[in-house]
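Ticket #4471: structure output looks truncated?

Reporter: J.K.
Steps to reproduce: submitted the chain below (293 residues) through the standard prediction queue, then opened the result file.
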Amino acid sequence: MRHAQPNPMNATTDLPVILEPTYRGPDAIGFSRWLGNMPVWALPALAIFVVLWPTILHAQAAYSVDKIMGIMAKWLPLLITQGFLMNVIISFFTMLFGTIAGLFLGLGRVSDNAVIRGFSWLMVQLFRNSPRLVLLFIVMLTLPFEIQIGDTYIPVPDWMKAVFGLSLPVMADLAEIVRGAIQSVPSAQWEAAHSLAFTRRQIMWQIILPQCFKRMIPPWTNWYAIMTMATPLVSLLGVTELVTLSRQAMEAEGNNPSLLMPFFGFALIIFFAYCYPIARLKLRLEKKFAVKG
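Returned output as attached by the reporter:
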């Protein structure tokens, strides 16, 4: 029988008190924490540096500053609407499919069935420890360009195959986030639910998972920022996105080295501007949803 424990804040004893562990979730490489802690003037400073770079190298550049700015102004609408927008779409669908698959895979990691638990463990270890670029090459080269259903041919675009390839490691990482969140719920919750004759499925979906969602939101936003920054990898496989269009634009303008910093500097600025608020949001949610001991 479990006995009620005194509140450690009111107790006066020199005996050690074991508190519930604080769940922080796998912080991956700490990307959002590092990005979110950057000062607010970092983005303007980066933009000023990129803008002034052609002037700094004006003596060595074949193009004048005015010409470079005119070229950038001509290509910016295309780079944003058909380039960076595709990066955002890829990251969104990657996280959508990865989250759904990761939820079920994470539930499999804590399943009572040894076969399901072992299979889930194998999938997590396989895709967590595989390079994303290798997975992308495998998916891009093995999936068909179109699917035939009867007399109907449904094309499979390259960006959708890239989404599938990127969602595999996301699925594995989010499965570990789900597993960690479930295991962070105190065992007393399970015992109380069992005493009320709840089934395991009812306990999981009605009691445990609702408490886990707020614990999973901060690491989820962390992985969304990381995945958004990883989307330029698909440019190596010919998917049309920001980096691919930047290279095509520079080729159309004569492949002059003076254009490297403006085009890729713009890519750096727009990715930073998109991911920085997400990183700040992650830090806020981490403090708001922190599990107190």
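Triage note (M.O.): checked the attachment and the full token line is present. The radius of gyration is 24 Å.
Status: closed, working as intended.
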